[in-house]
Amino acid sequence: MAVYTEVSDAELASFIASYGLGELLSFKGIAEGVENTNYIVHTSTGPFILTIYEKRVEVSDLPFYLGLMEHLAENGVTCPTPVRNAEGENLSQLSGRPAALVTFLEGFWVRQPTAAHCGHVGRALAEMHRGGEGFAIRRANALGLNGWRPLYDKFAPDANGIVPDLAPLIEGELDYLEANWPRGLPEGVIHADLFPDNVFFIGDELSGLIDFYFACNDALAYDIAVCLNAWCFEKDGAFNITKGRALLRGYESVRPLTDAERTAMPTLARGAATRFLLTRAYDWLNTPKDALVSPKNPMEYVRKLRFHQGVSSIAEYGLGDSAQ
Amino acid sequence: MAVYTEVSDAELASFIASYGLGELLSFKGIAEGVENTNYIVHTSTGPFILTIYEKRVEVSDLPFYLGLMEHLAENGVTCPTPVRNAEGENLSQLSGRPAALVTFLEGFWVRQPTAAHCGHVGRALAEMHRGGEGFAIRRANALGLNGWRPLYDKFAPDANGIVPDLAPLIEGELDYLEANWPRGLPEGVIHADLFPDNVFFIGDELSGLIDFYFACNDALAYDIAVCLNAWCFEKDGAFNITKGRALLRGYESVRPLTDAERTAMPTLARGAATRFLLTRAYDWLNTPKDALVSPKNPMEYVRKLRFHQGVSSIAEYGLGDSAQ
Description:
Aminoglycoside 3'-phosphotransferase, Chain: A, domain 2, alpha+beta, homodimer
């Protein structure tokens, strides 16, 4: 929620001119995006989003993110689509920072998702997994299994200061996940962060997916596990099995799960909860008190992790009978 | 540069529906406006700006501001124009705060104005003065002559802590202005804050005026004096007479000044410099160190005031010969 890089009208006009999108009509910094600076740009041919990449984004990853959005759009997935400039580049420079122009995606994220929304999200996730097939660039999941223990080690001595007994909870869970993590599941490009604020709707219809800046190659079913965590719990901490069922059935309407994926789901969900618990705990301890953006409370993911620890089968997430 | 009031999708959808502007397609908080929360709203009939009025705005003044924008638009002045809802109201409520929807004005403000821009601004200011004729609601200028000494009294003991000898400079100037303020000049609705960030251009053409939240009834020529201060000084503090000439001639191309207005211009310019010096000095002392928006340095207006103190005729602002 900030504009880190201020651009001048002359710089921006010349930047926009390089895209051949007509005359620059207006640009306004938008209060979204913690990591980057975003402007809504109107030209005589339509609205666009200009993103200026700030220091938290690895420049070497930008060809993956931008290339993926183009690849997905070409394969029928609705998402902001990079525009190429006169030199044929989808990545350029503005005010000395890497910058890209993407199409404006109409829609807005849903603050209180219903089971119907969850069904749409499951379907869109599977369509994204299909749409990502054949994408040539690869990116490892820096926040996958191998990244969790090193991240925990950074704040382990302070963990119990956040929540009593957080250290033994995380340490026991990392031991479990390292010993039981499923291998050999179908892999592909995953979104890895498909929370409600990254899915746009217009009315009851899903209008597209945004924010591919955690996308990477990993087990496809892990992406479903992230969504079960992000979409299917109520504010009071209870898992809503109606939403879980809708999400899983929505997914399977496009891409049925393998038996191995179904069996692995409780472990994948534990891993996904651990991943967000770890980053939230780290941010909780390391965000300056005067920062513009308050860190999210890690407690929410402690509760989710404990729920998944008690789950023994995908039926408890709502997918009881594959023939249904 | 902030979003103070977060609205939910359901609230906003129902708010937008009350205007009959088609379906809500998207809304994004914009990082503009220190005093209010602003969203860009796209509906199926076009883009709009939604403003939620925060506590610094007097609710009782809103009918003046919104009515003025409607009146000006009806009289050919291009500015954001309030939309009326199904009840015929241009002022409504959202998330418990007063809120209004206005048309989206394309264009963007010019960071480095040229003399040509100053000419357009002068012309647009005069057109606004003409367009404001006949507007029925009145609003006194809270930051006019009668408001300056009470504002100074709030920080007088600390004034010299900002700039050495600021207290005697302001006190002497207030004595001068109270004794010499011109009376009986043509009055009307003035913008009172027509700085570069409140004037939009597309290419070299002025596309409209925004931000009427200081507008009030006062001497029309005082509005020109504000613009001379805001548009015609260079970053090094020098007055640019070419820009002054362009601004004054632009103004006179629509509404020629009276002899009394010409004679009064140096005193009006001193008053305008004092007004912005006072508010900047007050904000300099009273803005919390951790505020999102840094206060503007009052020193700029000390220099401008000293310049005007040495001016004896409107010729020194560029209007040497009325026959030119």
